[in-house]
Design brief:
With 498 residues, this protein is of the alpha/beta class. It has 13 helices and 19 strands. The chain has one domain: Alkaline Phosphatase, subunit A, CATH 3.40.720.
Length: 498
């Protein structure tokens, strides 16, 4: 037998392969049709591309939303640890009157179940900071925010936020994913899933954390996970020390042509598999992740080079000031990224719990004065720089943590405040938001949200709405159920939208 005859020889078929082809072939044709119809229906609902198109398209390609968008990008300054609302943006003058009295005198129904340190419960405590009116709106601002105080007329303040958990990890998951447990997609992942990114050479979703050796937030990378969404939608973490992205530089000795050939082979093998299994949307995302990693080798270094910025811009953010240089660099990086089309950027202020973050269980004055000093000028510089470049109108800036703090003292050598899920504050600026307004109110000591209560699902629904996404239509089918960021709740806060 010659080689030609050998080449034409039919290989024996295994019993398993024969049973699969003979027993399942016709049934699989019907099942594939049903799966394709189901997937097409899912994507028709959210007005995005169908899976049959996704196999030939970049999953991160820009997509249109459900509504006219007021914002294109989001920068979320995450105040990790839980900032005290009564010491930041929710001025409560009546707290001065109640200072030193027990909270039961203020609220006879109060039960000592909130917080963690139930044996360290003190009396109501006024803010240690002096407040003064700022801007045309007359917003009362604490002395720890001299720079941000100049921008209050750009901000909509949410003063009646509330959540369920008073524990950092589940509260962080809830604020990031809408549910107080890990395993679900975070806000940035939902946004990039719905809208893609405007720059095919950079990630659509970028995360930065504390660079001063104070650790990651509780729950670590689960806070920027894509959950059950395809992995291409998860946050790309920029390391605060050393190379910001691992393996960004090409391996020594490998030429551009050689690397391109390797990626081309991987892409072709993956495409062959995808043609055989068109229902595997995750594979299209995996192919794109290889391509993105290659493209980032040329685009990312330039995007992250803040030293290329003029000196006056660096000074605006506070670069060079030892107190805030680290956070200033991250805020300037955020501006450079959204300027280049990155869809969602999240920056964490503070690391792990207690004095390494805004978690001021002891010495609330020293804790908040320190972290406000690290972030005040950089975030104010970010707002001013975005506005000067015409980017603020299309960039939504969010300042928010995972919960608030109690208006009572946590006793100690220097009093602090314990966790409070019943009331937190946040502000939004740019991106179609009304400026210089307060929305909602707490009781007079800042213990509970009372008027126009804002659940974190409402915050998420409003954020998606500003980006042109209907939170009830942005869904993903997983394990037989349709999931969404806002679960089964959420109301858009139309009163804060311009």
């Amino acid at each position: 037998m010659n080689l030609g005859q050998k080449a034409q020889r039919v290989l024996p078929v295994s019993r398993r392969a024969w049973l699969q082809n003979a027993g399942c072939g016709l049934g699989m044709l019907g099942l594939a049709d049903l799966l394709q119809a189901d997937n097409n229906a899912a994507f028709t609902e959210k007005s995005l591309v169908a899976p049959s198109e996704m196999s030939s398209l970049n999953p991160m390609a820009p997509k249109s939303g459900h509504l006219p968008a007021k914002a294109k990008h989001v920068i979320w300054v995450f105040i990790n640890g839980g900032p005290s609302q009564v010491d930041t943006w929710n001025y409560r003058p009546e707290l001065d009157k109640w200072n030193g009295k027990t909270i039961r005198e203020f609220d006879s129904a109060f039960e000592n179940t909130t917080g963690f340190f139930k044996n360290s419960v003190g009396n109501l405590m006024q803010s240690p900071f002096k407040f003064s009116p700022k801007g045309e709106s007359g917003k009362m601002v604490p002395e720890i925010f001299p720079y941000l105080g100049e921008h209050v007329d750009k901000m909509a303040f949410l003063l009646s936020g509330h959540t369920e958990s008073n524990n950092h990890s589940p509260a962080l998951f809830a604020m990031n994913t809408g549910l107080p447990r890990m395993g679900y997609p975070c806000v940035g992942s939902w946004v990039t899933y719905g809208l893609g990114s405007e720059n095919s050479n950079l990630p659509g979703f970028v995360v930065m954390s504390d660079p001063k050796g104070r650790g990651l937030p509780k729950g670590h990378a689960a806070n920027w996970s894509a959950g059950f969404l395809p992995g291409v939608f998860q946050g790309t973490y920029l390391s605060p020390k050393g190379e910001p992205i691992s393996n960004l530089k090409r391996v020594a000795g490998l030429s551009d042509q050689g690397q391109r050939m390797q990626l081309g082979l991987l892409e072709r093998l993956n495409e062959i598999h995808l043609e055989q299994h068109p229902e595997e949307r995750e594979l299209a995302a995996r192919i794109e992740s290889f391509e993105l990693a290659y493209r980032m080798q040329t685009s990312a270094p330039e995007s992250l080079d803040i030293d290329a910025e003029p000196e006056h811009v660096q000074r605006l953010y506070g670069i060079g000031d030892p107190k805030c240089d680290h956070f200033a660099r991250q805020c300037l990086t955020a501006r450079r990224l959204v300027e280049r089309g990155v869809r969602f950027v999240q920056i964490y202020s503070g690391g792990m719990e207690n004095q390494r973050s805004w978690d001021g269980h002891s010495d609330i004055e020293g804790n908040h004065r320190q972290f406000a000093g690290e972030t005040d000028q950089p975030v104010a510089g970010l707002l001013a720089d975005l506005e000067a470049r015409g980017l603020l109108d299309e960039t939504l800036v969010v300042w928010c943590g995972e919960f608030g703090r109690l208006p009572i003292a946590q006793t100690g050598a220097k009093p602090g405040r314990d966790h409070n899920p019943h009331c937190f504050c946040a502000w939004l600026a740019g991106g179609g938001v009304k400026g210089g307004i307060d929305y909602g109110a707490s009781d007079e000591v800042g213990y509970k949200a009372q008027e126009n209560k804002v659940h974190l699902n409402d915050l998420h629904a409003t954020l998606l709405h500003l980006l042109g996404l209907d939170h009830e239509k942005l869904t993903y089918k997983y394990n037989g159920r349709r999931f969404r960021l806002t679960d089964v709740a959420g109301e858009v806060l139309h009163d804060i939208i311009a």
